[in-house]
Amino acid sequence: MTAGIYAARQKLNTLLITKAFGGQIARKAVAIENYPGFEEISGTELIKKFEKHLRKQKVDIERDEVTKLKKIGNHFFVQTKSKNRFQSKTVIIASGADPRPLEVPGEKKFIGRGVSYCVQCDGPLFANKTVAVIGGGNAGFEAVIFLSNWAKKIYILEYGERVKADAENQERVKKTGRVKIITNAALKKIQGKQFISSVIYQDRKTKKEITLPLEGVFVEIGSQPSTSFAKDLVDFNERDEIIVEFETCETKTPGLFAAGDVNVGSFKQIVTAAGEGAKAALAAYDYLEKLK
Ligand SMILES: Cc1cc2nc3c(=O)[nH]c(=O)nc-3n(C[C@H](O)[C@H](O)[C@H](O)COP(=O)(O)OP(=O)(O)OC[C@H]3O[C@@H](n4cnc5c(N)ncnc54)[C@H](O)[C@@H]3O)c2cc1C
Questions:
Q1: Residue having the nearest C-alpha atom to atom 31 of ligand 1
Q2: CA–CA distance from 267 to each of 96, 118, 193, 270 (Å)?
Q3: CA 183 to chain centre
Q4: Tell me: the pLDDT tens digits for 178-233?
Q5: What is the average pLDDT value for the chain, to the nearest integer?
Q6: What value does the mean pLDDT take over residues 12-16?
Q7: Which of 4, 98, 111, 165 could be stapled to 169 by a disulfide with Cβ–Cβ 3.0 to 4.6 Å?
Q8: Nearest atom, ligand 1, residue 33 CA
Q9: Reported confidence tier of residue 121, pLDDT bands at 50, 70, 90
Q10: Has residue 115 got a pLDDT over 90?
């Protein structure tokens, strides 16, 4: 959205294609407290403000999913899921990241029947139920803080020896009084009939397999970049993030930029993603000027 705003303000003929507005901010379960200008704001409110700002600019907006990106000569060709085709002289990829799946038996079968990747969307469905949050980082702990408004009991299953959430989140989770943290836990299986009835994890120290009866599993083990449509035009690092020039966010393909969580930048935050969106749009403008 920031790239769209900046590109339009440079008077570039701009098309923004997106599956949805908000991206990962829509999954944010507790208030955002680190975006300058807003001491505390919900994800939904911040998205609305971004979208309102974007829609004030001269930007065409297509609600669609990009499935293929090609470059022939100096032109990019974009293809979408609904079979639309677009042509442009420059492209900014800002497709962020999707939640990383667990890849254990039962995960796919129970999506929508107990397995969720969005506590903000599905948390209220688990009133008075027992659930597990997989992942003991900040996202996992924030999910627990949100879920504690509904769930009766919450397990945090952390693969490592200790949880990685910051002290403040740990303190807030402790205060809820109904959370059990299990470390060294390797999730092995999600099971049930129509809905989840339990999970099996292995205690990585004792190697024992333990069954936990519960009704919901929230997956919070990080994310994976959404890049499949661009794989022929960019290089990736070992985490499948797009390699870019720091100064311009340009990829190895001239005229193709990648901004935000989708690129190799270490700090995945709203403010850094927005900053890179601005940087990429201004660099795209310079690129087009040089083409003239
Ligand atoms: C649970 C959680 C809590 C967080 N809390 C904070 C916080 O408190 N403060 C903070 O600064 N950051 C936080 N973050 C990180 C922050 O949300 C991200 O850094 C930021 O959203 C990255 O923005 P982005 O635009 O690069 O990507 P995204 O937010 O991932 O947005 C990508 C967009 O691209 C669209 N898209 C993807 N693929 C395609 C395609 N093929 N075709 C068309 N459109 C596509 C998506 O629908 C989405 O709209 C949090 C993240 C999570 C998951």
A1: 23
A2: 13, 21, 41, 9
A3: 24
A4: 999 999 999 999 999 999 999 999 999 999 999 999 999 999 999 999 999 999 99
A5: 96
A6: 98
A7: 165
A8: 8
A9: confident
A10: yes
Residue 200: what pLDDT?
98
Pocket, ligand 1, Cβ cutoff 6 A: 17-20, 22-25, 27-28, 32, 34, 65-66, 94-97, 139, 226, 229, 260-262, 268-271, 273
Amino acid at 112: G
Question: Letter for the amino acid at 151?
Answer: A
Q: Do residues 110 and 140 touch, judged by C-beta distance below 8 A?
A: no
Dihedral over alpha carbons 99, 103, 105, 107 (to 10 degrees): 10
Mean pLDDT of 170-175: 96
**Residues contacting 177, CB < 8 A, separation 6+:** none
Distance in angstroms (rounded) separating the CA atoms of residues 190 and 46: 35
Q: What is the pLDDT of residue 54?
A: 97
Separation of alpha carbons 252 and 121, rounded Å: 37
In this predicted model, what pLDDT tens digit does every residue of 85-110 receive, in sequence order? Answer: 999 999 999 999 999 999 999 999 99
* Centre of ligand 1 from the C-alpha of residue 260, in Å: 8
CA of 252 to the centre of ligand 1 (A): 23
Alpha-carbon gap, residue 281 to 101, rounded angstroms: 32
- Structure tokens of 228? 């499949």
Nearest CA to ligand 1 atom 34: 95
